Amino acid sequence: MKKLLLGDEAVALGAINAGLSGVYAYPGTPSTEITEYIQNHPLAKERGVHSRWCTNEKTAMEAALGMSYAGKRALVCMKHVGMNVCADAFVNSAITGVKGGLIVLAADDPSMHSSQNEQDSRFYAKFALVPCLEPSNQQEAYDMMAYGFELSEKLGEPIVLRVVTRLAHSRAAVEVTEPKEEKLLSPATDQWVLLPGIARKKYVALLEKQDAMKLASAESPYNKVETSTKKTGILACGIAYNYVKEAFGNDANLVKISQYPLPEEKIKTLAAKCDDLLVIEDGQPVVEELVTGLLGAGYPVRGRLTGDLPRTGELTPDNVAKALGKEAGAVFVPAKNMAARPPQLCQGCGHRDVYAALNAVLADYPEHRVFGDIGCYTLGALPPFQSLSSCVDMGASITMAKGAADAGLFPSVAVIGDSTFTHSGMTGLLDAVNDKSNITVIISDNLTTGMTGGQDSAGTNKYEAICLGLGVEPEHVRVVVPLPKNMPEITRVIREEIEYKGVSVIIPRRECIQTFARHAKERKAEKK
Amino acid sequence: MKKDIILCGVGGQGILSIATIIGEAATKAGLYLKQAEVHGMSQRGGDVQSNLRLSIEPIWSDLIAEAGAELIISMEPMEAMRYLAYLSKDGKIVTSSKPFVNIPNYPDEEALQKELDTLPSIKLDIETVAKDCGNPRGANMVLLGMAAPAIGILSVESLREAISTVFARKGEQVVEANLKAFDAGVKAGM
Q1: Do the Cβ atoms of A443 and A417 come closer than 8 Å?
Q2: What's residue A47's pLDDT?
């Protein structure tokens, strides 16, 4: 049966039909739809497949490893920067090894459509010494789930599955297979205790598996060779393969690479019969560097590092065609009457009222800085508010405000969302409390994870309790309702807490207007 | 035979519903299809677009190349022109004529309409047409109707059927209202 699926949905359905027992994830573009699809899928519901959102990617990775320990198949999903958050657990999961199949899905975002960087998760797979699968289309994304779980169980190692935005968020028809049964509970019997003495042995065992991983790549159905009489050989990684096929059809001398470690013999054979190699890969020049090492300095390897393809940004049919000498180019000149239309906070959004109040108070403190965080409210950096001085990573608002306050900056203010606070803000707040740092933390609580489309937020209804539990003084945990009519009260509260020499937390709380509208619609439908 | 379409507008205007309906019709007709969209932050009041590729042969790239799109279907006149680099030599723009102004530096409206007129385009105040046929939220269906004859690879009738299928779960009234808006668009586009 064929189904029209987003790349993310293909991953989700592939996992369910491969006998998945649990998905563990924190929402992040472009990976969010995977978990949402599993949450809403009838068979996953019937089987009780775990799919509730996790507090962050580290808790997700660890829970998935626990499920694997118990012998069942688990999937961890995140956007690329989530790999940084779960890196400790992920890298060590290669040392412990796995029991039930474990796939770590990283959705990379070259061109930073919705991200702070364009880091390439293939580096993480190499760093942890585990295989990486990189589908070129939706069908492969589906098929690679069953394939990946089997490979993971065969090797006893986690498998990284790397997708990019253009695959994650593109739809195509996928041939769907019959669902397999889940694995039975069968906990691991070997020791996963990474004390140095055991870890040293396990690390050697991981190194000894490298040949098996290379063999799996050499024999992989996803690493294909195509031949022609062309003198330039092409290494087409992941979705790059599609752009090459679009330009050259069947007339290309290429190795399609969708499984790592690199299929070295196939690459050497291609190099031997060609004059040079062009490496086409989305993201960072991972393969270009590796192949330069593999073939030696004398062999001409071209790609992003040599300027044949742009050093930054995603691949497109146009920049690939250009690198292949087949550029078509635009027919029409760009429009004259044109302006950028950046995203903006919704009309009626509570974050707007928070920034309006904050700006009004801080106008009296010219030395102030506001440290931002990751969410819709990062848009407070843009006009009309222009309130923020920084946005670095999940949770950094609080800790950066603390560091700046330690240096003597005043007022030092942090703005963080509810979901981001529970993801990575709580530990930083504890540091600030222990140091009695002079900071004002605003947890702008819209009762959801807004930017990714309104997923449940782990700490809803618990924020005051969390702050008190971490040791913020009760009289300096203040809750307000961000509405224009409450402006006098909100500005008064902000002013009082800025003037307090210590840690204070202000929680402006009003539901995201997007989820509010959705909930109102649902309630109306229920009444009918 | 293939048809590469860029669907565009401002986040929240309903371009993804148009994509869903064309996708449904294409799947039923047994066409190959790829549809790339952008989710996440760009949804909020910013420019949004979707690349929709239909063909009788397998499709490789998820994205349309420059000068590759036979059709730009836009919910907003300035957004229609944002993707000119992708319009093919014999391509066509089908757009709403009514600006959506949510930025302080929106271009001069008269100059914008003039420039649009120099391009191979048809435009219509789809919101007024939608209101006139009693379905103020059906502007996107009016636009789809306007574009339907130009889609070509799918018949107008197959798009009507797809509207019925996609909106079926919302009840007969919604289906009828959307078909009415669609038909008004077809009529206006001819």
Answers
A1: yes
A2: 98
Instruction: Provide the pLDDT for residue B11.
Output: 87
A344 vs B contacts (CB less than 8 Å) = 44-46, 102
Is-above-0.90 flag for pTM?
yes
From CA B62, how far away is CA A210, in angstroms rounded?
34
Summarize pLDDT for B20-69 with one digit per residue, the tens. 999 999 999 999 999 998 766 656 788 999 999 999 999 999 999 999 99
Q: Does B188 touch chain A (CB under 8 A)?
A: no
Nearest residue to A420 via CA among A412, A428, A411: A428
Amino acid sitting at position B133 = C
**DSSP state string for A132-184:** EE--SSHHHHHHHHHHHHHHHHHHTS-EEEEEEHHHHTEEEEEEPPPPPPPPP
- Name residues whose C-beta falls within 8 Å of residue A396's C-beta, 6 or more positions apart in sequence: A371, A373, A390, A428
Question: Is A293 in CB contact (< 8 Å) with chain B?
Answer: no
The CA distance from A408 to A315, in Å, is 45
A420's CB contacts (< 8 A; 6+ apart) are A373, A374, A375, A394, A395
The pLDDT of residue A327 is: 80
Distance from CA of B122 to the nearest CA of A (A): 16
For chain B, the average pLDDT equals: 94
CA-to-CA distance for A216 and B117, rounded, in angstroms?
58
User: Residues of A with CB below 8 A from B34's CB?
Assistant: 170-172
Name the β-bridge partners of B74: B8, B95
pLDDT reading at B7 higher than 60: yes
Chain B, 121 to 180: residues with Cβ < 8 Å from chain A are none
Identify the segments of chain A with pLDDT beneath 50. none
Which residues 6+ apart lie within 8 Å of A391 measured at CB? A116, A372, A373, A374, A378, A381, A397
Q: Report the phi/psi class of residue A321: left, alpha or beta, with left for phi > 0 and alpha for psi in -120 to 50.
A: alpha
B63 vs A contacts (CB less than 8 Å): 166, 316-317
pLDDT for position B45: 83
**Would you call A363 an interface residue with chain B, using a CB distance cutoff of 8 Å?**
no
Of B33, B44, B59, the CB nearest to A346: B44
A303 backbone φψ class: left, alpha, beta (φ>0; ψ -120 to 50): left
Output the six-digit token pair for A179: 């669902």
Domains and CATH numbers, chain A: 2-218 (3.40.50.970), 224-323 (3.40.50.920), 350-515 (3.40.50.970)
Write the ipTM.
0.94
Contact A370, A422 (CB under 8 A): no
